[in-house]
Amino acid sequence: METTNQPHLQPVSALFAASWRFFKEHLKNLLQIVIVMMIPNALIVVIAILINLTANGDNLGLFVILGILVFILYIIGAILQITGALGLIHYIHRRDKTLKLNQIFNFGWNLFWDFVGEYFVVMVIILLTALLFAIPGIIFAVWYSLFVFILVCEGQKGHDSARQSRRLVSGNWWGVFGRYLLLGLIYCAAYLIFLIPGWATGNGWIMGTGGALYFIFAIFMSPFATVFVYHLYQNLKQVKNL
What we know:
This protein is mainly α. The protein has eleven helices and no strands.
């Protein structure tokens, strides 16, 4: 009897290998996007240091001004995080090194409100199911986790992107969850290695060094994780023949 090989979920090692190859080839462009996304956060850290240095009654006016700047930077940072994340996925999907930063972020801005609207709907669904019990919330979170990739790569807007995400994940929920869990464990390991020693010892130098190292880790890990999930998304499309 003749048998056919059905597409299946790639092993984690294969996903990591494909993601690593892409990451190395496009490292410069990926880091440029992420660094721009993080500029407001870096400025907030600098201002927070200034606030600590000037936190007394004699500098109340300066303290208020710096506080307002932090608020403005938080808003700008939130916008850049969203537009940058959307643009990052767009760049990964296009694989086009000629794309300029302004084109990447403009693409993200064009999808900004579509993303915000559907993200709100998805979060409400996840929170409502989580109120019943934690497990349903986790199930829905994994089901809908790929909606942003579908929004960017396929142009499906509204709740269509979330429904398509659920179709892709259904039947492979545990495999997808396990791959997300692995990424989470990598972040947790870095957190334990870089940040916990400083907090445990209370040593300012260790805390500062650990914080800087974790920040550098995040700059590299953030685009790699996005590349990894993109390859997972493409693999699921092959499995479902979509």
